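Schema walk-through. Below, the input block comes first and the output block second. Nothing else is stored per chain. Lengths vary across the set, and this one has 135 residues.
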Amino acid sequence: MSYGAAAALQAAVYQRLMADSVLDGLVGSAIYDAAPPGNPGGTYLSIGPETVRDASTKTERGAEHEFSVSVVTDAAGFQAAKAAAVAVSDALTGASLVLARGHLVGLWFLRARARRVEEADVRRIDLFFKARIED
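--- output ---
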């Protein structure tokens, strides 16, 4: 197993989301690797936690990275959040990301969870993806 490509994967995901024209129209440059402090208002994306498992073969070191991208909005209802979530899914599912370290074998959508965060009065959709990387 190798965790060596984790930072490269995060950087490539970030670049892919920042370069997506649909997302640019929906969230602009509000794409973070941690939730911004306070309540920034509007709609933003946060690249979230990951879980990594060994996926080595006899000849290649590799890992499966499960990670999340969260859409958070203070807009009324879920429409704005769902529009951004669809754009995230479209941008990442099956993407051919070029990594600074390692080789991306595949990138798949796993699941999503939409909810209202009562104490913050925001809508949040967490999208979960799996990336298979050979290092």
